[in-house]
Amino acid sequence: MRQRSTALKTSMALAFAALLLAGCGGVTQGQAVSPVYDPFRVGGLPAEDGDSGVRDDAPDPQREVEFTDDGPIDRMAAQAVDDVEEYWQENYGDLDGSFQPIEILQSWDANDPSSPEICGMETYDVPNALYCIPDESMAWDRGVLVPTGMKYFGDVSVAALLGHEYGHAVQHMANLVDRSTPTVVSEQQADCFAGSYIRWVAEGKSPRFKLSTGDGLNHVLAAAITLRDPILEPGDAEMLEEGHGTALDRVSAFQIGFSGSPSDCAAIDMDDIEQRRGDLPMALPYDSSTGGVASGDMEITEESLQLLMDVLGTIYQPNDPPTLSFNEEECADATPSPPASYCPATNTISVDLSAMQELGEPASEQNNVLIQGDNTALSVLTSRYALAVQHERGESLDTPTAALRTACLTGVAQAAMSQEGDLTLSAGDLDEAVAGLLTNGLVASNVNGDTVPAGFTRIVAYRSGLSGDEDLCSARFK
């Protein structure tokens, strides 16, 4: 967030490293009430935890890999390529042209100084995966990238990564891109194709991998978030089209594919991306008070939280605004949901300031968490204000649908805060909220702090609010 006259910090660089998916709060119980946005489904599939990874009876890899060490890492990666190819053999039909399997597969070890040159580039100290257009080949790093993905995000995240790279090959088969295509369009289409493939895995159609739509899919989405672009600065305007996208961009494209079809992915273009981005902040501005680049992180204090309450009052315009308390309060009709709790009986939001400050402390994968910052915490307080709005409207507060409606209304407020005001959304804030929805779910929790099973569904609800209004949230989640 940016507050008028606030001194701000510089952005953090992206690191593909360790992740802690720490659950906070319980999971709601009950029957789904919305036929379209079902709290207990994920893109139409049941939301369930369970085993994810390589099947015990998975067939041996059929493809040969150049430069391989014949170890288990390359074996699993080759199985993933077999799997993605089988998906496309079954599902390419809606695209132009015809599907032709990639002929050349290669691997390298980024830890090895004698690692081979691939696609005209040195591969030592290069943890990456790629589709090489000139050679029509695909390659991956077995030394750092793939084992890191397997360790922290699971085997299916590697299959999704290779599904993304295979998506680039499909783009060229179907003549979807050329040299004039913005990089972000190419990358969003590939993210979307990966989502379509992962849907096939989650449906149980893959003979090699299995994936739960709860914890398993959460880890795949977490891997996608780690591959976001660094937060852009004023001089990075070209990266809006030539980058790979924010976490929200990448997760949104993945969700389009997971819930849709390859033809939906092929339809992604710059107009579609810009429409989804709307007026949301994409780059940090200059700080007029210092002349340097502003940062999106604001210090969380009693004063800044009260300022947020005032701003939310202007956005939601309730007849009876809730009050903010920094003391532990007894509540007759709700269970606390720290670090911020809403009590309907007293129309009070109680905040544990030290816990809120800890939740909003800037951090990233280098600190063993997904991206975290002030909006990880401020979006939680916003969600508790959203409960007060629902209470005034006479809507349920303790149901699974209320949890998603709360996320949607939080998105409404955050979109409104993208405009200039006393407290303004900054580049990176939405990524912080999306990561929080995945790791703790508090923004998508009901008055008792209970969330819904799938991080995928929580993010869908929040995204609904970013492009909607209060009435849409009430109609979609009733």
Automatic annotation (TrEMBL):
Coiled coil: none
Record bears the keyword Phosphoprotein: no
Alphabetized UniProt keyword annotations: Signal
Top-level taxonomic group: Bacteria
Feature: compositional bias, Basic and acidic residues: 52-66
Residues spanning the signal sequence: 1-22
Signal as UniProt keyword: yes
Region (Disordered): 44-68
PROSITE patterns: PROKAR_LIPOPROTEIN (PS51257)
Protein name: Neutral zinc metallopeptidase
Organism from which the protein derives: Mycolicibacterium arenosum
